[in-house]
Amino acid sequence: MAKVVIFSGAGISAESGLSTFRDADGLWEKYRIEEICTAGCLNWNRENTLTFYDARREQLDSVMPNAAHYAIAKLQEKYSKDIAIITQNVDDLFERAGCKDILHLHGFLPRLRCEACGTTHLIGYTKQERDLSCQNCGGSFRPDIVFFGEAAPMYEHLYDAMQDCEFLAIIGSSGNVVAMDHFARHIKVSILNNLEKSDAINEKVYTKVLYKKATEAIDEIVVDVERFLKT
Fold this sequence. Notes:
Helices cover 33% and strands 19% of the residues. By secondary structure, the chain is of the alpha/beta class.
């Protein structure tokens, strides 16, 4: 497993112009989270939910990876066996920057998932066809997104990756959804990069804390990772 884990949240994608559900404006402001991103919402609010994710794919198509995404891609290319990228984000900005084997903990926006058998289907940035059915079992498709209150099967892979992690870099994560402090306590080197402090994070458990934009912090993070891997 990789020695270095780069763990990211919405902060890194926000710099590319993507709305997050904590923003005061943007896509999420027009909807209540419990109506379009909570377990069961597809049963009683299906059309509004699908319309929301159509709009998110449309927005994703309008933005580009930023300098932080590209720097991480370059780092991973140089140290392919030593760098693992884990993200809470459902966008494809890491992939478009050139990153490989991204572990998406909460799903992947350009992809649909069959509600019956779990078969996935890539649709990119297009709207979901409402009558599209699964060729495997005939079931209906839904956005391949983990809603609040649903099981998140990729978390098992997160725990596996953290067992071998020696250097943890957290970029743009408030800690409100996935708490990483307990991992940082047991890792040789850990860097926390957020735009500002979060009540959900204990900064004292990190080796280094950088309160600045990801695009402003990434060069220092890359230098620290390379120094660590060369020792």
